[in-house]
């Protein structure tokens, strides 16, 4: 399996440490690993021109920088989004990459490859907002068409600490092992479930009377308005 980590921080702290514990679980010789570190690998802020949605993704002013990352995302079987909680949300590095994927949401021009993937969200917070950050990233995965999403959020009560000095590191390791096994099972037996089907069918209806020609043309070309499906 191809595992892509989208690491929302270059800081080698809690988020890195927890993510590395997960990645270790997948080091069994059958998996390959790739990583996008933000903002090192992409640091453009979305200007809100909406060119990607209205005119085509190649009209985004940051197309040359973001498109190679989208290829990496498309290529992965498991996508890990890892982020510290910053002021109640994900890191700005991760957020700006997600903004550049808006045109790939189910409401616009979803990519077939996203329906075969599994998502894993890793969040670390000092004290609060793990739930809200997980919810935000779950929404992104769902609207990109990813059918199975797992999460592991942890409140560290530390600012910039490291896993090696956590009191309950054995407990954390056990939980990560358990969660990683669930993710492994999902990767072998991935299915598009009710939620993804519901969202897909909802947005299919909106495309039938669509307001954005480029989206409607895309759905027509794919044959999705004539019974074909991306999953
Ligand atoms: C700018 C900034 C904002 C933060 N905002 C929050 C917050 O809203 N809620 C919270 O619980 N922790 C917050 N924290 C603490 C971090 O989420 C926490 O220490 C996290 O584990 C850091 O991850 P890292 O070690 O991978 O950098 C913040 C830290 C920074 C640097």
Task: Give the arrangement of secondary structure elements.
Elements: E1 2-7, H1 14-25, E2 32-37, H2 51-54, H3 63-75, E3 78-84, H4 92-99, E4 118-125, H5 130-143, E5 148-155, H6 169-188, H7 194-208, H8 213-222
Parallel strand pairs: 1-2, 1-3, 3-4, 4-5
Helix pairs in contact: 1-6
| CATH homologous superfamily grouping | Flavodoxin domain
Helix content: 40-55%
Name of the level-1 CATH class: Alpha Beta
Main β-sheet description: 5 strands, parallel
How is this structure best summarized?
This protein is of the alpha/beta class. It is built from eight helices and five strands.
What does this structure look like?
- With 231 residues, this protein is an alpha/beta fold.
- The chain has a single domain, classed as Flavodoxin domain (Rossmann fold), CATH 3.40.50.
- The protein has eight helices and five strands.
- The chain has a five-stranded parallel β-sheet, sandwiched between helices.
- Helix 1 packs across helix 6.
- It binds flavin mononucleotide.
- The site of flavin mononucleotide has 21 residues, from helix 1 and strand 4.
């Amino acid at each position: 399996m191809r595992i892509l980590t989208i690491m929302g921080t270059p800081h080698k702290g809690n988020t890195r440490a927890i993510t590395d514990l997960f990645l270790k679980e997948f080091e069994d010789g059958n998996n390959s690993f790739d990583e996008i570190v933000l903002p090192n690998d992409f640091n453009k802020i979305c200007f809100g021109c909406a060119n990607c949605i209205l005119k085509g993704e190649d009209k985004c002013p940051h197309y040359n920088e973001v498109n190679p990352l989208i290829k990496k995302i498309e290529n992965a079987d498991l996508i890990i989004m890892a982020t510290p909680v910053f002021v109640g949300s994900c890191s700005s590095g991760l957020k700006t990459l997600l903004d550049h994927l808006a045109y790939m949401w189910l409401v616009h021009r979803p990519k077939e490859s996203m329906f075969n993937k599994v998502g894993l969200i890793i969040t670390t917070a000092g004290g609060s907002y793990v739930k809200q950050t997980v919810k935000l990233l779950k929404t992104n995965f769902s609207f990109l068409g990813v059918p199975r999403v797992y999460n592991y959020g942890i409140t560290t009560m530390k600012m910039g600490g490291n896993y090696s000095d956590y009191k309950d590191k054995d407990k954390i390791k056990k939980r990560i092992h358990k969660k990683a096994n669930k993710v492994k099972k999902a990767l072998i037996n991935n299915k598009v479930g009710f939620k993804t089907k519901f969202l897909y069918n909802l947005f299919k209806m909106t495309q039938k009377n669509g307001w954005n020609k480029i989206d409607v043309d895309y759905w027509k070309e794919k044959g999705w308005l004539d019974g074909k499906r991306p999953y």
